[in-house]
UniProtKB/TrEMBL annotation:
It comes from the Bacteria. Its EC number is 2.4.2.52. It catalyses: 3'-dephospho-CoA + ATP = 2'-(5''-triphospho-alpha-D-ribosyl)-3'-dephospho-CoA + adenine. This is triphosphoribosyl-dephospho-CoA synthase. It comes from Duganella lactea. The gene is mdcB. It holds the Pfam family CitG. GO terms for biological process: prosthetic group biosynthetic process. Keywords: ATP-binding, Glycosyltransferase, Nucleotide-binding, Transferase.
Length: 306
């Protein structure tokens, strides 16, 4: 476990009390609106990416019969105010219990908008925590770098996130049931560790692809497959068990071993994986949520430079 002092050094974070007082409420609202816009844009970027194995896109519904791109759009529209509220809450130093209440309300709004379909439960947690961290960082006068966002999250809410990861929950989600049955980690454990799959896996994959001159689509495809290779996706375990998870990992490993999107036939390979995943009802939704989180972190860093 990294100490708070070390995290502050990594993220260049102080207590920020005097800095926070310099900002007017209008400034806080404007910043939170912009962060919310970037969060929704990140979800939209993930939705529009294609070909994605087994996942919903504007092209088709992947492995799903209960949702399509329109369902996701309704969900995003319902979540836009949540991202603003949780960013403001982070700015105002809200406790994790307060952030959690906002997340629970957002989930209810999502389910109402989608007629009971879970489109973005994982994203409500991961992108919500990033929005809160962005608000807290800006209040402290801290740059919105990936290192700073992660440090803020762990310093301010790390202990509460760790306790949250150990809770059983009064109404266990599919992710909690999968974690209990197959001993795999999920969104709660990710949060308690400061979203390592985002900062240590997905973002480096995005940056590596960008460095070699990949397009935005290619960057995101490479990052998605890298996440599929590394995480234990509760969505996959819920739908297809360990056997399905093995298929996902094998396809991801093969795709990346061939060079990912640097390979001349990557598009055909990704389409083949998509067809296989649909046939087996596989949908790596956890990896998709984390990809959206990576896109948000990138956008927040770019916002700082603008």
């Amino acid at each position: 476990m990294i100490s708070a002092t070390a995290l502050r050094k990594i993220g260049d974070i102080g207590d920020g009390a005097q800095t926070a007082r310099r900002f007017s409420r209008a400034t806080q609202r404007n910043f939170s609106c912009e962060v919310a816009r970037l969060a929704v844009r990140a979800l939209h970027a993930e939705l529009c990416l294609y070909p994605k194995p087994g996942l919903v896109s504007p092209v088709d519904s992947g492995s799903h019969t209960d949702m399509d791109a329109g369902t996701f759009m309704r969900s995003m529209f319902a979540l836009r105010h949540y991202f603003k509220k949780i960013c403001l809450a982070g700015w105002r130093d809200a406790s994790f219990s307060q952030l959690k209440k906002l997340g629970i309300a957002a989930e209810a709004g999502m389910l109402k908008a989608t007629h009971g379909v879970n489109t973005h439960r994982g994203a409500i947690f991961s992108l919500g925590m990033l929005c809160a961290a962005a608000g807290r960082a800006r209040a402290q006068g801290t740059a919105l770098t990936p290192a700073a966002l992660r440090a803020v999250m762990l310093i301010r809410w790390g202990e509460e996130l760790a306790r949250h990861a150990g809770e059983d929950g009064s109404t266990p989600s599919n992710g909690l049931r999968v974690a209990a049955r197959y001993a795999v980690s999920g969104a709660r454990e990710e949060g308690a560790l400061g979203l390592p799959s985002v900062f240590d896996v997905g973002l480096p994959a995005l940056l590596a692809a960008r460095k070699r001159g990949a397009t935005v689509t290619e960057e995101r495809i490479d990052a998605l497959y890298t996440l599929m290779e590394h995480i234990s996706d509760s969505n996959v375990y819920h739908r297809a068990g360990p056997q399905g998870a093995q298929i996902v990992r094998e396809h991801a490993e093969r795709f990346l071993a061939q060079g990912g999107t640097a390979h001349a036939n990557w598009h055909a390979d990704a389409l083949h994986s998509h067809q296989v995943f649909v046939r087996h009802r596989l949908s790596p939704g956890g990896a998709a949520d984390l990809l959206a989180a990576c896109c948000l972190v990138q956008s927040l860093a770019a916002l700082e430079k603008a």
